[in-house]
Automatic annotation (TrEMBL), chains A, B:
Gene3D superfamilies according to UniProt: Glycogen Phosphorylase B (3.40.50.2000)
Keywords (A to Z) from UniProt: Glycosyltransferase, Membrane, Signal, Transferase, Transmembrane, Transmembrane helix
InterPro entries recorded: UDP-glycosyltransferase, UDP_glucos_trans, UDP_glycos_trans_CS
Protein name: UDP-glucuronosyltransferase
Entry EC no(s): 2.4.1.17
Record-linked Pfam families: UDPGT (PF00201)
Keyword Membrane found: yes
Enzyme class: transferase
Subcellular location: Membrane
Signal peptide location: 1-21
Record family assignment: Belongs to the UDP-glycosyltransferase family.
Membrane topology, as annotated: Single-pass membrane protein
Source species of the chain: Xiphophorus maculatus
Gene Ontology MF, one: glucuronosyltransferase activity
Length: 529, 529
């Protein structure tokens, strides 16, 4: 495996000598989306390309003043950092602490309002690029070869269209895969392709298939109501002609989906959909000295790594005590990334850190389990290193992600609002002591590593392909040119039905005509007799 | 590109050092199917694996006495070479000289009978393996890691099942993609995925979509009648339990489809379908001295390469004269592979050869056009080297293949039964003089070469993957476990329809009840008044 990796590096280095540098424009993004795009961009710079990243004046995680090998194109947005943070915290609070106690209608209404607020912010960001003459002038004069974007941050498709350059998407998922299905034409039979965030697997009984069917339908209606109508209006205003945002999205040359069959369930896909889950994964580096000493002190029992991700800094004091009590009952040493007040119940085996080198810890031979909020980046690092998980999912795709890991036998799920000290302790003990969890994690790790090309190399290949060939039209299915009823052959079926009915009608009429003739002859004969 | 290829070779060589040799059993095949499997097997031997090929005692093209690096497992079949040749010639004659003059019903009946005869031969071949105790004993004792087969030659799925080993298919296509769709669960919406051999493209108007829909349906019925019923009976007899051959076929771990988006139209597919068209393609080697002299004598006009493949040795004298007249009118020199009597009209620019090094000629810089019968192997060599084509398709997939090349702007089609000297001459002149044909051929060539991995490397990777991991179950969609109505969510739709109707009924009844109550009150009131 090492040999293959080193030859892959050689392959890229050699090709770098060959490649004539192109110009890549990167649409703004944030947090885990940006974490995933960065290694691709770093590699593109290594390979002699020039990378220019659009950065808004207000951003939670992007920082254009950091020393970097990228060029930054700053644009003004009429949103304060406080407003952005407030919206973000409201969303998190809803998902983490409110949703579990609401009925479906309340969830729908709250979610609808949150998304509506979020959309207003989206348009202010869009104004900063599309309504700014100096920015658009600069972008046009930049003569970029490709626009690279996470479509979660709207507007890249319209910008690529205006600039007349190819577009490559990097996407984890859209709700119920609405964009991939409706705009990208990705076939997704609801009978065995669970909608993203549905918390279903590919093995569904009748009621689950019904749920998934309704999940697709309801999300499609909601997204149409919340998103497409207003985005279409905005796009049409900018372009000065009626414009469908979904149609523009469907013009993307390549969709790099940040998943693979280690994490996702196998499903139908299209030639321009490439599965590059785990782009940011890499081998573990040595730990800082004091951390290594703490890890080594665990002896044969090993360690447990615990973090709820960068977006949730702390939990309530009550929850922190509950968690600390559970951790204290483990024979393992625990490294907990936590920024809150030290819990009273903290055991001597648990050490709190304000930051941990998560990937290096997950790759450490002493690591027995990973307690995670279930973000895809963390899960992918655990898959890469073959570490079983306990998931305490919080929001967005996290509950669904953990359902995937549970279905593949590599994780146990705990609910933050309903878990107890005992249930958390037992869950951690289970993934450590029941060998099947480790075996399944190692199986997923083998699937992750044993593929023709690393996800990073594959992503870089297809971005460069798009630049070299000014797009990737030969991978685009003709389905984009069909209406929904043509796609499903409903017009053909209707035609065949009409023909059938006509034939039956003619047959019926002919028979009844013959029958009448026959009867009338007999009657005439009888009368004559 | 050269650098990338050489690093690919390095990658394979290094991995060869790493790979511990496995044991590969190869199902018998013949002609172009065998040509495509051979380079894969040669590479597998290079990489330290042991390859054992099942060879029938009667075969048109396979020869176990040739010196080879493969081991051969010979099995007896109760079919004479003459019988095999006769059936083969009857099929060819029907396709080449009869079909054009028949109506659809006549074609259907003739085809049905031909396939029925062919199936009897198939069962005799199957008897040679599955009903031969010594052969089955040897195969069981062989402890093979994988069975590699072209499913056109039936029985490999049952054998893999009996031996309990993984199965990798190498397939060009099945008629109307029936096996890929019905057994492999490959999604194929008839609205934009033309059925194999339908002579349609992915751009279809209403009548073409109707044709394609009916083509799928009719072929499914015909294949069910001709094939599945009797094969199921045969398989059930061997296994001693009711067995569905299609279900067994669906258990294949990997389907290596011998096509790619240079030749085929982009379409939906599944994680265990890999597109490896052009496996046998390779750079051109220098020509024999006298042939090189003849080629060089063409000067700036260049040469035309003409062959109708290994399966059609000669055409009628009349056709040969017509072709020779057309070739005589070209300014190019022509190299014609032909084994018949020298045509009277042969021009001085045309030289006849009993055999030509086709790939080396197509890769020669002087080559301007390729006149071909439209077999996939020849077409792929032309794509590899970027040579425009004139197709004179004969039978099987050839007419459909040429429709693909015509739709992609790299070929002109001629009908052997209806072409004239002038039409053939004009077709050749068009592909040489109209620059668009060469440009399109070069575009297809770029698509062919510019992919993350060569088709040969990809095929080898997935066979080895299957051996390493004892299958590739993580790539298998859950659709295999669903009935057809579950797959299409018809049970869910029926349920929702019933609920809807019930609700409407309840609403109607409630309204009519309220209305009646309301009316009766009014009447009582009036009476009281």
């Amino acid at each position: 495996m090492k040999l293959r990796l080193s030859v892959c590096v050689l392959l890229l280095l050699c090709a770098a000598e060959n490649s004539s540098g192109g110009k890549i424009l990167v649409w703004y993004s944030d947090n885990s989306h940006w974490i995933n795009m960065k290694p691709v961009l770093e590699t593109l710079v290594d390979r002699g390309h020039q990378v220019t990243v659009l950065v808004p004046s207000t951003s939670l995680f992007m920082n254009s003043s950091e020393p970097s090998r990228f060029q930054y194109e700053l644009f003004d947005v009429d949103v304060s950092f406080e407003d952005l943070e407030k919206i973000f915290e409201t969303i998190i609070h809803f998902f983490v602490y409110e949703m579990d106690f609401m009925n479906p209608l309340e969830i729908y209404i709250k979610f609808y309002n949150l998304m509506k607020n979020n959309k207003n912010i989206t348009f202010k960001f869009l104004d900063g690029v599309l309504k700014s003459e100096p920015i658009m002038k600069k972008l046009k004069e930049g003569n970029y070869d490709v626009l690279f974007a996470d479509p979660i941050y709207a507007g890249s498709d319209l910008t690529a269209d205006i600039l007349g350059i190819p577009l490559v998407f990097s996407l984890c998922f859209s709700l119920a895969n609405n964009w991939e299905r409706m705009c990208g034409q990705l076939p997704s039979p609801p009978s065995f392709v669970p909608g993203a965030a549905s918390k279903l697997t590919d093995k569904m009984d009748f009621s689950e298939r019904l749920s998934n069917f309704l999940f697709y339908a309801l999300q499609d209606v909601m997204i149409d109501q919340i998103m497409w109508k207003e985005v279409d209006e905005y796009y049409s205003e900018i372009r000065g002609t009626p414009t469908s945002a979904c149609e523009l999205m469907g013009k993307a040359d390549i969709w790099l989906l940040r998943t693979y069959w280690d994490f996702d369930f196998p499903r139908p896909f299209l030639p321009n959909f490439k599965f590059v889950g785990g782009i940011h994964c890499k081998p573990a580096k040595p730990l800082p000295k004091d951390m290594e000493e703490f890890v080594q002190s665990s002896g044969e029992n090993g360690i447990v790594v615990f973090t709820l991700g960068s977006m949730i800094k702390n939990v309530t004091t009550e929850k922190a005590n509950l968690i600390a009590s559970a951790l204290a009952q483990l024979p393992q040493k625990v490294l907990w990334r936590y920024n809150g007040e030290k819990p009273k119940t903290l055991g001597s085996n648990t050490r709190i850190f304000s930051w941990i080198p998560q990937n290096d810890l997950l790759g450490h031979p002493k690591t027995k389990a990973f307690i995670t909020h279930g973000g895809t980046n963390g899960i992918y690092e655990a898959i890469y290193h073959g570490v079983p998980m306990v998931g305490i999912p919080m929001f967005a795709d996290q509950p669904d992600n953990m359902v995937h890991m549970e279905a593949k036998g590599a994780a146990v799920i705990q609910n933050l609002n309903f878990m107890t000290t005992e249930s958390l302790r037992d869950a951690i003990k289970a993934v450590i002591n029941d060998k099947s969890y480790k075996e399944n994690a190692m199986r997923l790790s083998r699937i992750h590593h044993d593929r023709p090309m690393s996800p990073l190399d594959e992503a870089v290949f297809w971005i460069e392909f798009t630049m070299r060939n000014k797009g990737a039209k030969h991978l685009r299915v003709q389905a984009h040119e069909l209406t929904w009823y043509q796609y499903h052959s409903l017009d053909v079926l209707a035609f065949l039905l009409i023909i059938d009915l006509l034939l039956i009608f003619i047959l019926f009429k002919s028979c009844s005509f013959c029958f009448k003739r026959c009867c009338s002859r007999k009657q005439t004969k009888r009368k004559a007799e």
